[in-house]
Amino acid sequence: MRTLLRRYHDAGDPVSCEPVAQGLLNRGYRLRTTRGAYFLKHHLDGDHEAITRQHRATQRLQALGVPVAPPVESAGGDTVAVIGGRCYALHPWIEGRHRDGAQLTTAASWRLGGLLGLVHTCLDQVMEPDPDPLQYLGYLSPDPADTFALIDELLALARGRARADVFDRLAEHRLVERRGLLERHAHRRPPPGAEPATGWVHGDFHPLNLLYRGAEPAAIVDWDRLGVQPRAEEAVRAAAIFFVRPTGELELPKVRAYARAYRAAAGTCASELVAAVHRVWWERLNDFWILRWRYQLNDRRADPLFAAVSALAVWWTREYDAVCEAFAG
Is the pTM of this model over 0.85? Predict the structure, then answer.
């Protein structure tokens, strides 16, 4: 730790270092020194070039008024510290709290949509166009034939557990239910070329990556998935995370306010957002990432999310027209 801090002007000496976040792409710590508090981020992937690109983006976004927490520069002007072959970054500690959609008023939901729209328009200004033409191959919608095979595999794993619990029984129910939905709606798979406009996006915009101070956003954090994607789809995915109730329904009045503000800030038309709604709905019908973590990777960290996420896919299918209207209204 002392080796790290010596790279920075006036960072002080270490007093304590406590873990505050653990993810697939990084580890986070609250680092206290004799000069103050910092967020220390250990980037597990160690992609120096990608990390530096993220840092430059947040520095430029801050200059445009986007609430972010750019890294502290070292005495040599670097933002990535490589120690023992590992990549670290030091950020200012931001006091704040996470707020999900249930804790946001309709007015705050409107501000949230405007904030994401601001992020997308400002990223257009600060990022170079992505020259990789192969990126578009990742936008093809899931093939239900592949999903049916995955459902069969996950069903076998859930049913084969020696001591099945409540989660396993719910998983079995949802897998069988989802197979029926896909059989009925397979003809609605979005065709190639139906993708909304692409652009640079945050890539992981959800409540745990947004800090509030009072009623106002203080900082958007965790830019590890910064990349080029259909922008309107990020707006839809974020709404489906922020505004889902524990029982799986979306709070459509808040979604409507959020979507109106996003469209105004991002210059996105209603039809583009509705196209994104359709593609994200189809994505959700075919997505079983939580069950894959549990049964294929023996990783249960996402288990608490399954009840709401799996119920949302069913509810969204039933209320498809109402969801489209909320995003377009």
Answer: yes
